[in-house]
Each structure stands twice: as C-alpha cells, then as structure tokens.
Amino acid sequence: MCGIVGYLGLNEKKEILLDGLQELEYRGYDSAGIAVIEGNTLHNFKAIGKLKNLREKTKNYATKGFGVSIGHTRWATHGKPTELNAHPHLGQYSYVVHNGIIENYQSLKEELQSKGVTFLSQTDTETIVHLFEANHTHNKNVFSAFEETIERLEGAYATLLITEADSDTIYFAKHGSPMLVGFHGDDVYFASSDTPIIGKATAVYYLDDGDYGYASKGKLHLFDANGAKAFTKQALTTDKISAQKDGYRFFMEKEIYEQSNVMTDTMMGRVLDDTIRLDELEKDFFKDITAIKICACGTSYHSALTSAYLFERIAKVRCDIEIASEFRYKEPLLTKDTLFITISQSGETADTLEALKMAKRAGLKSLSICNVDNSSIVRESDASILTRAGIEKGVASTKAFATQTMVLWILSLYIGQEKKTLSKETLETEINAMIHTPKALIVSDTLHEKLHRLSKRYLHGHGFFFIGRDIFFPLALEGALKLKEISYMHAEGYPAGEMKHGPIALADSELFTIALMPKTMHYDKIKSNVEELSARDATICAISPLPFDLADDFIQTHYDSHPMLEFFEMMVVTQLLALEISVRLGNDVDMPRNLAKSVTVE
C-alpha cells in the first residue's frame, strides 16, 4: 500500500523515480507523482490512475545535473484518488511524500488553519509539509525544523521531504511504515522495499522505527531518540530475474507455476530424511510454552486456520487463531506460557504488527513467519522463520500462502519432535508427505487447459460456495477469497457441515458450488453435504481423486495418500480456476481494483 522512491545524485532523476515506482506497482495504487529540485528550481508532476499517465505527463521533461527527487504511488486512505490528493504535497517551497497514517492530523490541520495556512487536499499527509514550513519560519535551521515536525506526528509514517530552503538535501523519518536507504558511490536512494533500487544501489540500510535524518552530498546523517546513530550497510542483491514475468501472461500465473520450486526452497535444510531442523530457533525456544496464539490477516489468516488443525493434531499443543484487526481491540487475555506467532507476506501488515507489539508488551515470546527478511515484523519478533517464496508481485497471494502453510506444517512437526508428543512412525509419514509436496504443486498443461475451458461456464450466476471440512475448510475460505479478489464475483467459503444451518437456502442452479472432496479426510461426510446441495439444483464443481456422479463438472486430483498432499493439489486448482475466470472477464489479474499488496495502515 503506497510506495516511496527518492534519489539524490547526478543521474537523470525522472527515470529513476518512474522506474522505481513501476517496481512498487504490486503494492497497489490509484495515483502517482514526482517532485524534483535542481539548483533552486522545483518541478512537480502528478497523475491519477496508472503510471503510464504520469509518464505521459512527464514525456517532455528531463533532469540534468545534481538534484534531489522524491516520488510516490498512493492508495487512497484520506480523500478520494484525485490529483490534488496525490503525493507529493506542496507547501510554499517544500514537497513531502508519506506512507502510513498521521492519527493526529485533524488537530494539526486545525492548528495550522487557525494560523492562516490553506490546505489544497483532503489528506493527512499535507499537514506534514505545512507543519514543517511553520516550524521553519521561527527556526531557520532546516534540520531543527524537521525534527520539530516529526516530534509532533502521531501514528505511522515513512516520509521524505525536500525543500528549496536546503535544495541539495533529502530529509527522512520512519515510524511504523517500511523504508530503506540505498547507496552507490555518491548516489543515495530511498524506497519502501528493495525492488526499486536493485540494479542501482549496491548497498542498503534498513531504517528502524524512530530513525530520522538527512542525506546530503552523498552521505547519510542518521539520528534516533538518543541522537546521532551509527549504522552498517548491507550488500544488496543484484538479481531481478524473479521480478519478471518470464513469458507468463501475469505475475499471478507465474507465481502459481513457481509454487513447486519455492516449496522445495522452503523445505531445504529444514525437512531432513528422518527429522525436522529449524536452525532459526534456539534449542529451548519452546521451554515453558503450553499454548500457541496466531495473529494474521487475509490469506495469512487462512494459513493460520489450517495450522490450528496441525498444531493440535500433530504437536498436541492448543492453538488459537486471531484476526489481527479484531485482536487489537478485544482486550485479549495473554499469558506468558503462550507463544505468539504472527504471519505476514510483507512483514509490514499494520494490524498484525500492532498485535505483535501488544503481545510483546504483555511479555509473550514471539515468532514471525514472513517472506521478507529485515521487515518490521521480523525485526520486532524474538525469532522468525522465512518462507523463502521470493518476490510475489501479484496482489492476490498464491505462493506466499503455500509456503506459509508449509512452514506452519514444518513447525507443528518440530514442536511435536521437541516436546516428544510425536511418534517416530508419524514423523516419518509426515516427512514422506512433505517430500512429495513439490510434485503435487506442479501445474500440468492438461490441468490448466481443462480449467481454462471450464472457466467459461462460471461467468454469471449469483455467487459461489467453496466448501470443505477440516483443513479443507480454510482452503475453501482461501479459494473463495482468491476468486472474489480478482474476478469481483461474490464467493464465500463454508465448512461443508454448516450448509444446512442456513446457507443452503441460497441453493439453485445459479449457485456454483466448488466442493473440495479429499479421499483421505471425511469423504463420505462431505459427499453427503454436496448431495444435499445437488438435490436443491445447485451447480456442482467437484475437486476430488474420486469420481462423483452428481458433479456437473469434475476435476480429478491425483495425490491421495495424505491430506496435505490433497490440500496443496486442490489449492492449485482453486488458484487457476480463479485466474481463468478473471481472465475471461477481462480483469487486471495482477492489480485488482481497490486492493493493495502490503496493507501498512489499519
């Protein structure tokens, strides 16, 4: 959600900003803008919609020589997606970009308006630049005025500010929203994530919460609450191949096909022939832990729901699952014998991060499962296990869900192994299934072609029910979420046994039921539930290794020796079905409307 790029140096700045913002498209946005100061001249361009609109506006503009520059892709939180509300925001002689939410912006705005300041936008961000210039009128030291500004801000922010009062400097601050600084010679880059600066910067520093300062003359001056702060640069990868489509129509399609390979990466060094090894965790990490509480949002929440069955069934540890956005306000009971696990693809999910901070304040041991090293959630946690999914650009998550679920499965075995609640025979059975998982995730041409042909039958109707039992209930939720995210069609996931408790009232020929019918788990039970829907004339699409006579459409799966193998194979089917339906509807699969990849505000 929202993306920031900044650059200070001699190179052509417009293209650096636009190319960097292009790399952040996966985060979701509805408008974009850039601002550049060269010498004492300030230039600013904004456009709503896709970045191509901003490129068109700037086609006759080029920079030359040393200068400072900032750019931003915005996803509307305060105010509609308009050019006035797009970043960068202008004061009398300064520009600012900002990710996050300034919670006290209304009181700051009223204070500034009482002093005669005129606001052009409806955003919280504009308060930052006006507050800075108000401070600068009585404090002619620009950096001191910037310090005074960020001291007044409440909420989450990553912000860059440039000003004609100090035209060769970029001022920055980070609290609760991600931002990093890249370096190459005397060039200094800022960005919300690695991708905009790969191939440009060679080293990077990931800003911590509370970091602020300025970049000038090729150097970074860093501060925190204790004053000047030393920092160590890290090498930055130069590999951008994984960020390309590699011939696939969409990033989402590419990422579905990648799942077999990334699952192997996820297991590497962790799943051995006869044991589970997690070098990320200290040997006594689970000492005195008698329960697990997992907090997550969206797709990550569905992987958490799946894992609750595994932790209790395999590890014999009580596991409670919480929606992060609800957890923060329910006054939860937190006891120190509970391991607090957070799950996030980006590691920047605002609600999940705040839930983690609550648990830490209560003294709970914390573990994060995340796809992004050095992310806020990873840095905030006592320990972390990376999913190794690689860059995921499709807004609708696929391989992140698969690898999160695998890590949680691995963790359930590891806990059972460490607590000796798991027999040697069960461990061997589970490891054997894990080793076969990458094969269950391979997309065959036959399967994809069948789903492509089937998809034309599902472009109308009044909705979809995805139904399953046990671990296939969370998979039903995830399948429904994938479909609604990218097709904009109504879809719901249900436990199959709950259909007769109300939802079956909707059943008719225009209700499409996607039935997850594994051979290894409660087959007869779910078969009975589907038969009830069929008797009410619902259209049935059965996904199962066993033929089902009442199915209008039947997708046969093959890996039927273990529930998790069936889980992952059916997961691929639901992902591809959602993809193909969305393609037929002419939707933007990678960037569905109203959605953002990384939800960094609540």
List keywords for this structure.
602 residues, alpha/beta, Rossmann fold, single chain, 16 helices, 34% helix
Account of the protein in words:
The protein has 3 domains: 3-238, Glutamine Phosphoribosylpyrophosphate, subunit 1, domain 1; 242-438, Glucose-6-phosphate isomerase like protein, domain 1 (Rossmann fold, 3-Layer(aba) Sandwich), CATH 3.40.50.10490; 443-588, 3-Layer(aba) Sandwich (Rossmann fold). Helix content is 34%, strand content 24%. The longest helix has 22 residues, at 563-584. Strand 13 and strand 14 (227-228) form a beta hairpin. The protein is of the alpha/beta class and 602 residues long. The chain is globular, with a radius of gyration of 25 Å. The mean pLDDT is 91. The protein has an 8-stranded antiparallel sheet, covered by helices on one side. A 7-stranded antiparallel sheet has the order 5-6-7-8-12-13-14, with helices on one face. Helix 3 (105-114) packs across helix 4 (126-138), helix 7 (298-315) runs antiparallel to helix 14 (472-487) and helix 12 (424-440) packs parallel to helix 16.
